[in-house]
Amino acid sequence: MKEPKQTPIEDLAELRSYFASHNSIREYIAHSSKVHSVGWSCDGRRLASGSYDKNVAIFTLERNRLSQDYLFRGHTGSVDQLCWHASHPDLLSTASGDKSVRIWDTRTHKCAAIIATKGENINIAWSPNGSTIAVGNKEDLVSFIDTRTYKVVVEEQFNFEVNEISWNLSSDLFYLTNGLGCVHILTYPSLELQTVLKAHPGTCICVEHDPTGRYFATGSADALVSLWDVHELACLRVFSRLEWPVRTLSFSFDGRLLASASEDHIIDIGDTETGEKVAEIPVSASTFTVAWHPSRYLVAFACEDKDPPERKRDAGNLKLWGLPNSSS
């Protein structure tokens, strides 16, 4: 059962007022080492986190709090990125440095498939139609996995630094960002290069599509976030409030809000329609993963926090922001 969608707030002043009374942060211990990736299931009932400790933690959201449900063990290397199935709320994919992709079933608490890949994997993207998982490794090789057979059906070796990968909403275009500040858009499944966008002067680190299919955003080493029109391939506006390389992006369920994070001690929440700041989340360390809830104005994120008192060991915590201030 999907969580009922929060009613989108149209007015910028109303959005700001909403977050002025919904800016509480809750912190949860999830791992014994740094959290690399967080993501929500499509129905919004579960949150997963992948960590350097090789484990995948599954939390259940009950109104305004998370409770840990299960810990998936099996990877023998760091879990660098995870991605849920876009319409199946129990299926989760993870990319690991152990040269494998794993599919987990949160209903049965079992690993449903292990797919061997050629290198240490650093990013993963499940096509919105559910048919294909793309995984990229440290050697800039992208492998495409057919989810009916759980076999690699095609591999594409790129001769430039591939940083992050994403699908468009109709799953027929595949996007990747590179070290030269460009976004390459390829047709799928033919993998013919359709266009190259010069998006940033610096390394283009991340790319994210919004859930409504109107926009995609890119984040760069130049500390800028660019918002693009999917159909026109035109840059609509640039967000320039961060001062460090942009590491991670996430759109709210209605496409209205864009969260961007870096080594800055804030996560910026910007309005996609005007580019203006709606809110900011205070953090005390670099943030490498953020994820808006698929039907509520809630953000899950993880930072490179250190455990007190010596602050030498990485804390494996994840956080939830956007909770009502008076919640118990």
UniProtKB/TrEMBL annotation:
Stretches forming WD repeats: 28-69, 72-114, 197-238
Chain residue ranges for the region called Disordered: 307-328
Stored Pfam families: Beta-prop_THOC3
Keyword vocabulary terms for this entry: Repeat, WD repeat
InterPro entries with a match to the protein in the record: Tex1/THOC3, WD40/YVTN_repeat-like_dom_sf, WD40_PAC1, WD40_repeat_CS, WD40_repeat_dom_sf, WD40_rpt
Basic and acidic residues biased stretches: 307-316
Record family assignment: Belongs to the THOC3 family.
Name by which UniProt lists this protein: WD repeat-containing protein 55 homolog
